[in-house]
Amino acid sequence: MIYYCDSSAVVKIYLEEAGTAFMRDLRRNASIGDIIINVIGGPEVMAQLIEKYPLRGYDSVQLATAVAFQNFLRASNGREVAFVGADKVLNDAARKEGLTVINLNEQL
After folding, report:
1. Cβ count near 63 (within 10 Å)
2. C-alpha distance from residue 57 to each of 8, 9, 67, 106 (Å)
3. Under DSSP, is residue 2 helix (H, G, I), strand (E, B) or coil?
4. Distance between CA atoms of residues 13 and 4, nearest Å
5. What is the pLDDT of residues 5-16, one digit of tens each?
6. How far apart are CA 61 and CA 57, in angstroms?
7. What is the SS3 string spanning 23-66?
8. For the chain, what are the domain ranges?
9. Which of 1, 22, 30, 85 pairs as cysteine with 34 (C-beta 3.0–4.6 A)?
10. How many helical (H) and strand (E) elements, i.e. helices and strands, does the chain have?
């Protein structure tokens, strides 16, 4: 069986709620390639950062993508992500999430 999981299913891996045990078991026991998510699934799940910071919708997706990529890199090869932006609120949120920030408004 191939399982296509939308974001509401994926989030149950991380939040304790109905369906959490099923999703954690599925993640643990499924073979590689048996669980499919849309490429936007990871950033969409992480976009719950919108509740943590006063970000516009797509800004939360931008931040979520950078944070997810940073987590992947740290786990796989230890490299770091520099978040490059000119939006003060978004840059501040990125910094609070542990990203190195290059503020374009401070560059020549």
Report:
1. 27
2. 17, 21, 16, 25
3. coil
4. 15
5. 887 788 888 888
6. 7
7. HHHHHHHCCCCCEECCCCHHHHHHHHHHHCCCCCHHHHHHHHHH
8. 1-37, 43-108
9. 30
10. 5, 4
